[in-house]
């Protein structure tokens, strides 16, 4: 596939810059995958060119600039195993490891107000429990502050530096905030616990009198609120869409928020006291994953990705109507296809949201073949992001439909609950409805519609080809769950409680989970399959892929099995992405393009 390979080479050369975070001296840290995997880069405060600050084969998971100097903290795992280790990066010179136990997962929290310590969670005491810890940055000495049960996060320090905010989330749509005194481990409930509501992203006032937060208390969507400790949140900005990000300006007179509007990110600057919208800068339509105020408070940086361009870095200067591009690691290739927001009807009369992308030119006689790509989660949302793999599929002459079936986030609590437990297969009925919607249009070929997904989306693929085997011309399953029983037996112990709250208890709901396991219906699969798996995956262990591949081979159903010894839950290294994207392109060309070569 020489032409396909060259197209993919150009797509993968379009590298991304993400996750900006300012340090106190004004330099901007971020992640960039120009070298093949996401590494720490820096935009110096003096305007000098961007420069790399880390160099590892394995991707860096996050970077956070220091609030007191020009340094940063970053974390990375090994071969995708998610056992993140923390590193201190000084303003100049190489990084120094702060943790070095490959058995332990360190969950990022925040740097202390005085810059001397950091807060993180660690499951060193028990793999299933993430205790809050404080690490002295100079010495690397850790201290466990409290022993807790289950997974937790540490989203903030109190301004006085003597306590932490511990976030407890037993379910996806339930979370509480708890204050923890570092010296004693004493706890104080900060948010009300009545009902299953989310309380997230706390940001303290400097005087400690209260904090801004994101919450959906009494609402269908997350909104911005202010709350005194132990009180009830008072909403300041509550649109009929999720407010996803929140950062106060350095002087705390303004709040920057990002609102999710049908999957697109809308940056707004609010008055911190009233919540009134002061500014809403313009920039290309896309997705923002992180915002960061400059220490002088006159501007903020954000990343922005869209279907036709990988993530780049932008700056919004206050009182300016348009944001400005400040860093793009590479130009995107020409002739890329944009996504459009569409809706399709499903079995219960709802109109479901989806993104549609069409190949260049007019549809051929008989219509385009179509790939239906299903996001993971299920607590997730397909968004108009940069997807070089889907752009490659489009270049082959295959259209792409990306639905947000019931159970997706971003459309309110009620919509996300429509696939819970016994309703799980209703989301698979939505995929059948997407097939029917496309098949009814002359521009698509009803005989050549494939389905593809990853993780939980891989389960959706397996469920689709077993529940509706007559519909699909091909299926692509990235590390999907084949049988819930074996999944719960082997997934990381720190994930079991949270996943059981969504999918069902592996003991109490064993019968339901067996009914929802595609492995038991593998004899229904009629279409050829491609299965891909990272062999260090701690979330969906390789056994899940191996079971379905074995079942298909036993029945002599065509199956391609692609494995990666140095990847976990996702394919992050550029050479591995090249390999799997080419494998998918070849597979779809063989089964959707009338056996024509992909080139």
Can you walk me through this structure?
One of its GO terms (molecular function) is serine-type endopeptidase activity. One of its GO terms (biological process) is proteolysis. The chain is α+β, with helices and mostly antiparallel strands. 18% of the residues lie in helices and 35% in strands. Among the domains are: 206-319, Neuraminidase; 340-592, Rossmann fold (3-Layer(aba) Sandwich). It has 10 helices and 36 strands. An 8-stranded mixed sheet has the order 29-30-32-31-33-34-35-36, with helices on both faces. The protein has a 4-stranded antiparallel sheet with strand order 1-2-3-4, with no helix packed on it. α4 packs across α5. The termini are close together.
Shape: globular
Strand order across the largest sheet: 29-30-32-31-33-34-35-36
Largest sheet: 8 strands, mixed
User: What is the mean predicted local confidence, pLDDT?
Assistant: 93
Kindly summarize this structure in a few lines.
With 599 residues, this protein is of the alpha+beta class. It contains 10 helices and 36 strands.
Notable characteristics:
599 residues, Neuraminidase, Rossmann fold, eight-stranded mixed β-sheet, four-stranded antiparallel β-sheet, 36 strands, 35% strand, globular
């Amino acid at each position: 596939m020489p032409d396909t390979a060259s197209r993919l080479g150009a797509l993968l050369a379009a590298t991304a810059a993400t996750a900006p975070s300012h340090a106190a001296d004004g330099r901007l840290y971020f992640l960039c995958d120009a070298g093949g995997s996401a590494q720490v880069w820096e935009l110096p405060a003096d305007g000098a060119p961007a420069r790399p600050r880390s160099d590892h084969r394995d991707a860096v998971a996050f970077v956070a600039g220091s609030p007191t100097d020009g340094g940063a903290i970053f974390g990375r795992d090994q071969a995708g195993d998610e056992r993140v280790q923390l590193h201190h990066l000084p303003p100049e010179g190489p990084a120094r490891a702060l943790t070095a136990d490959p058995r332990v997962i360190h969950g990022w929290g925040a740097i202390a107000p005085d810059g001397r310590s950091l807060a993180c969670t660690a499951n060193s005491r028990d793999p299933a429990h993430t205790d809050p810890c404080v690490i002295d940055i100079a010495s690397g000495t850790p201290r466990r502050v409290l022993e807790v049960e289950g997974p937790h996060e540490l989203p903030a320090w109190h301004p006085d530096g003597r306590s932490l905010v511990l976030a407890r989330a037993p379910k996806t749509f339930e979370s509480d905030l708890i204050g923890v005194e570092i010296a004693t481990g004493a706890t104080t409930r900060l948010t009300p616990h009545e009902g299953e509501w989310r309380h997230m992203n706390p940001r303290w006032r400097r005087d400690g009198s209260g904090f801004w937060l994101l919450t959906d208390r009494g609402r269908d969507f997350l909104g911005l609120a202010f709350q005194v400790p132990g009180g009830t949140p008072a909403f300041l900005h509550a649109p009929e869409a999720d407010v996803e990000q929140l950062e106060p300006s350095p002087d705390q007179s303004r709040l920057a928020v990002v609102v999710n509007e049908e999957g697109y990110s809308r940056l707004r600057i609010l008055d911190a006291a009233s919540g009134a919208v002061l500014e809403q800068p313009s920039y290309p339509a896309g997705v923002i994953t992180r915002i960061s105020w400059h220490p002088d408070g006159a501007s903020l940086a954000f990343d922005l990705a869209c279907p036709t361009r990988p993530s780049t870095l932008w700056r919004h200067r206050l009182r300016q109507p348009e944001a400005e591009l400040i860093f793009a690691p590479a130009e995107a290739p020409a002739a890329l296809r944009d996504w459009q927001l569409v809706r399709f009807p499903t079995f219960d009369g709802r109109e479901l949201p989806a993104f549609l992308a069409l190949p260049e030119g007019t549809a051929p006689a008989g219509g385009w073949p179509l790939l239906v790509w299903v996001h993971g989660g299920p607590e997730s949302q397909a968004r108009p992001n940069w997807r070089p793999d889907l752009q490659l599929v489009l270049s082959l002459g295959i259209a792409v439909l990306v639905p947000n079936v019931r159970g997706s986030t971003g459309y309110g609590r009620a919509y996300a609950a429509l696939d819970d437990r016994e309703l799980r297969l209703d989301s698979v009925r939505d995929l059948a409805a997407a097939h029917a919607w496309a098949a009814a249009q002359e521009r698509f070929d009803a005989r050549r519609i494939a389905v593809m997904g990853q993780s939980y989306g891989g389960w959706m693929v397996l469920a689709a080809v077993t529940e509706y085997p007559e519909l699909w011309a091909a299926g692509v399953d990235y590390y999907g769950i084949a049988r819930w029983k074996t999944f719960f037996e082997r997934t990381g112990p720190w994930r079991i409680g949270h996943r059981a709250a969504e999918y069902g208890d592996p003991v109490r709901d064993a019968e339901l989970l067996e009914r929802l396991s595609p492995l038991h219906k593998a004899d229904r699969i009629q279409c050829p399959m491609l299965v891909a798996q990272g062999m260090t995956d701690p979330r969906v262990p390789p056994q899940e892929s191996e079971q379905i591949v074995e079942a298909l081979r036993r029945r002599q159903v065509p199956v391609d099995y692609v494995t990666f010894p140095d990847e976990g839950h996702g394919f992050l290294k550029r050479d591995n992405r090249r390999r799997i994207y080419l494998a998918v392109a070849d597979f779809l060309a063989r089964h959707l393009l009338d056996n024509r070569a992909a080139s």
